[in-house]
Description:
With about 180 residues, this protein is α/β, with parallel strands linked by helices. The protein is about 20% helix and about 35% strand.
Amino acid sequence: MGVAYHNKSYLEEKEETLKNQQEIADKKSNPKPLPFTEMVFEGITFKVINLAEADALIGNLTDFKGEQIYNVFEDTWRFPSYQENCFFLLTEEDVTLEKLDLDYSTEENSDVFILGFIFLKNLKTDKYILACDTDNSPALIVLGNVETVNIHLFGNVHYIGDGLQCDTLWAFTTMANSL
């Protein structure tokens, strides 16, 4: 009886894994339609991209231990893709702003859900970068350098590829061994 129970548990676990893999494959091959192709946020025109496009850009990023950082399809806590009108914002150029408040939506577009901000080049702000929702903020992903006076990062795993120059860094992690 013990062996049959273990086999049943094993098979149920494998069926669940297969079901999850099929759901991910469906999300990759049949992405949700985007509400628009571009969106202005903090005065910058961003390209609106879906999860599959974001995964192609950030899916291979790794931490200091060589472990994958982002899985946009499976990590629904960091990237709650079950939300309506959810997407990433992408810019392919250097960006300079006065400030950057990372928020899920804007007053102009309150019906959208921004999962993350991807900067392929450098990001510079004159005052600050702020991701203050301690439970879950949109991810800040910068493949280039970040230059700011103050940076305050909470609520997600944020990535800076080439370097950070700031006067004050305020961040919170529950995974101290990953630093």
